[in-house]
Specification:
367 residues; alpha/beta; Dihydrodipicolinate Reductase, domain 2; 2 domains; 6-stranded parallel sheet; 13 helices; 22% strand
């Protein structure tokens, strides 16, 4: 049986999701929610069925259509209210990154997922890349890991809101490699020192370049060097990666099969499992998790740490100091408790001891 879904948001990224949903055999699109009904109707046509019901209210349309899950493809400022509404309607959610606009809001949603027993998964679409999975297999053969690095250089002229954003690279793009670094190292970050800046020729208002050094568990360093105004010799959108360990090094250019050199011998790790491609892979993972009652990659408790890396990097560049991730989490937890208006979510937040421990705990999802 296919999963009946309502999608919230039909403009911009929403159109890419509508095409992906229409091509999927795992889901059936039964409704589209958007504040602009003309945009919603255009989305229904794009999905191949102009008769798909549309509306402005998620709760009402989900009830009318018998929806079983929600796709939240709205702008970040809407992620918290939309996801909270869906969870309290008894509906699991697959949402676009970031989980929420701030770490505090993401913690609120993690608590709401606990309180309602519903799955909230964040689509970190760049994790769904078979080359990335194979690269992690290479890292596992490198012995004791010392350093992982990403070089990212692109020069897109987006126009619109991105060119007016503060911290545009860190906020809008760096969460992808930061999240991938957590996946590759199979560890979480401890601290970061970051400097962001804007080259003289930049067409962005906010800082479009950044250099960051994260310390991860087991004293591993992750080094990020990125720019969105770097014309010439551009890297892949996935970045250019290198990992160094006691037994050798592994390389991935972001677009092709990774390689490794184990003390002069080419590495040949076991075949890595296929995970699908980008948002289609995320959608398939969401459906599988609901079917099996398991916790997928991107479940909100785990995903919060990737957003915390972004928030910590921005705090570091603003203060000029090294930022400890646990301090970011604890401040966000205090803010979440202060702002929470949902009694059940607030009770869950208050029950947490260490935020890191609460995020690391195994979560059983409802299916």
């Amino acid at each position: 049986m296919t999963l009946r879904v309502v999608q919230v948001g039909a403009g911009g990224m929403g159109r890419a999701w509508l095409s992906t949903v229409a091509a999927s055999q795992d889901v059936e699109l039964v409704g589209i929610v958007d504040l602009d009904l003309d945009v919603a109707r255009a989305g229904a046509e794009l999905a191949g069925d102009p008769s798909i019901p549309v509306g402005r209210s998620l709760t009402e349309l989900a009830a009318e259509t018998g929806a079983q899950a929600v796709l939240d493809i709205t702008v970040p400022v809407a992620h918290h209210p939309i996801t909270m509404e869906a969870l309290h309607a008894g509906l699991p959610v697959l949402g676009e990154k970031p989980a929420a606009q701030t770490v505090a809001e993401a913690l609120s949603l993690a608590a709401a997922a606990e309180a309602t027993g519903q799955l909230f998964m964040v689509s970190q679409s760049r994790r769904y890349n078979d080359h990335l999975v194979a690269f992690r297999q290479h890292l596992r053969d490198l012995g004791d890991l010392g350093t992982l690095s990403t070089r990212f250089a692109k020069a897109p002229h987006f126009g619109g809101f991105r060119e007016e954003m503060d911290d545009v690279l860190l906020l809008d793009m760096a969460i992808h490699p930061f999240d991938s670094a957590r996946y590759l190292l199979e560890r979480d970050p401890v601290s970061v020192y970051c400097e962001s800046y804007n080259p003289s020729w930049s067409w962005y208002r906010g800082d479009a370049a950044a250099a960051a050094v994260f310390t991860f568990e087991d004293d591993i360093r992750y080094v990020y060097d990125g720019s969105w105004c770097a014309p010439g010799a551009e890297t892949s959108w996935n970045g250019d990666w290198r990992a160094s360990g006691s037994a050798g090094a592994a390389l991935w250019d972001g677009d092709h099969e990774p390689t490794s050199d184990l003390d002069g011998t080419p590495g040949s790790p076991a075949d890595a499992p296929g995970v699908g491609a980008e948002i289609a892979g995320a959608l398939a993972s969401f459906v599988r998790a609901l079917d099996a009652g398991t916790t997928p990659d991107g479940e909100v408790h785990g995903n919060v740490m990737s957003l915390a890396m972004v928030e910590a990097a921005i705090a570091s560049t603003r203060s000029g100091t090294r930022i400890v991730i646990d301090e970011v989490l604890e401040r966000a937890h205090a803010s979440a408790l202060d702002a929470e208006r949902d009694d059940a979510a607030r009770e869950r937040l208050a029950s947490w001891g260490s935020v890191r421990s609460a995020l690391s705990a195994t979560v059983t999802t409802a299916g």
